[in-house]
Amino acid sequence: LEEIPPRPVQDTGNILKQGYLEKRSREHSFFGSEWQKRWCILNRRTFYYYANEKSKQPKGNFSIENYSARLAFHLRKDSRKKCCFELTCPGKRTYEFTAPSPAEAEDWVDQIQFLLKDLSSLTIPFDEGDEEELYNDVESSDSVNTTSHNTTLNQDEPNVEMEEDDIYEVLPGKQPKSE
């Protein structure tokens, strides 16, 4: 399991969503689960949670790859049960949250699902400038980027294998004179 280096709030990269959520702690107290207010940030790959929005070090973070997000009204019995959602992944910890409102909870779930769909699709998001230099390997037939500049030469000729001597085109009127 790769460790994600902790980052201060201002440093978390492309922030897709952020805001205060209540996160259920892993330690259950005598009275049941503890809900702690956390400043949460979602970027393209990672979910961070901080004590507050000015914190320098996250309380924790996890890669959201392979997680799924869904509303989870069963997490609370009080008036805020429609504000709950959870992030689950087989074999990994389940994260449980309460948003300030049902609409906010839905928005968090939508954003995470959108991001997960993006992560699981075959297209790897790159900056426009990087794409050309990464995929201009004409030799590889299983190249990810099969655009028109990767077309095979000799499309019209059924015989693709050429003999060594056929690589030079003989132009009319330029034959070497045989003596």
UniProtKB/TrEMBL annotation:
InterPro entries: PH-like_dom_sf, PH_domain, SKAP_fam
SUPFAM superfamilies, per the entry: PH domain-like
Keyword field: Cell membrane, Cytoplasm, Membrane, Nucleus, Phosphoprotein
Ranges of Acidic residues composition bias in the record: 158-168
Subcellular location: Cell membrane; Cytoplasm; Nucleus
Renumbered residue ranges of the record's region Disordered: 134-179
Membrane-crossing residue ranges in chain numbering: none
One GO CC term on file: plasma membrane
Alphabetized Pfam families for the sequence: PH
Compositional bias (Polar residues): 141-157
PH domain sequence ranges: 14-117
Family matches, as PANTHER family: SRC KINASE-ASSOCIATED PHOSPHOPROTEIN 1, SRC-ASSOCIATED ADAPTOR PROTEIN
Protein's name according to its UniProt entry: SKAP1 protein
Originating organism: Rissa tridactyla (Black-legged kittiwake)
Lineage: Eukaryota, Metazoa, Chordata, Craniata, Vertebrata
Gene: Skap1
